[in-house]
Prior knowledge:
Blueprint: H1 2-14, H2 41-50, H3 57-66, H4 70-74, E1 81-82, E2 87-90, E3 93-97, E4 100-104, E5 114-117, H5 120-140, E6 147-149, E7 155-157, H6 171-184, H7 193-205, H8 210-220, H9 225-231, H10 236-253
Antiparallel strand pairs: 1-2, 2-5, 3-4, 6-7
Helix pairs in contact: 3-5, 3-7, 7-8
Amino acid sequence: MAGTLHKALADAVKRGRLRRNPADAVSPxxxxxxxxxxWSIEELRAFLHHxxxxxxxxxxxxxxxxxxxxxxxxxxxxxxxxxxxxxxxxEWTLGAVGHELTWKVRPxxxxxxxxxxxxxxxxxxxxxxxxxxxxxRLLLGPGWPEDFTDWQGLSRTALVWTHADGRPVHPKTFYKxxxxxxxxxxxxxxxxxxxxxxxxxxxxxxxDGWHEVKVISQRLGHxxxxxxxxxxSHVLPAADVSVAHTLARLILRGD
Length: 255
């Protein structure tokens, strides 16, 4: 609640309605960090199976196979994707200030600007999504908007996620539809952001060496590996047991 108020007041300053943000002088109350919740690989697979016929299936697949943030996926344009090369570039995010869609020139941090490889199944889903979008564009004709300009005057062309009339899909639509689809699938309730936790947990649990942990950290857009390990420390005990057994075997038996 405090964060929302601060953002609203900051927006008022940016628009010239206030000279300064009064919330800057207030120290927010400290609170313990809520533990992350996530789905198992089996639950994530069950969700993807349930949403195979959904119009946003390619988006759900991207959430599950890249661990990208909602704003990063919502803000994609086709120029951010190379489906022949199989990669995705994250440079912009799409969020909302009040009810108004807002472009942000860069993700959450400098490390958030990244390039990620895409697997063949995700690429195939994106190709199918692009085909359906092109059909919708042909049906609408000249009324299809070439770009979307936000209230700041920032504009981007050829959005990946659009309605049948070419309007951008609001980030809140992803949140609401995810919650509804997860309930339909009979899965434990989690937030859309927790799919990112599910991806990270599964990836780290299956990592074979620190080089893979580094790659996972980069794909998540974390500034350092330390942030990744701190955020997903729940994965580490099992890995610690494996390392302990392996090292003891090497030291004591020499094999």
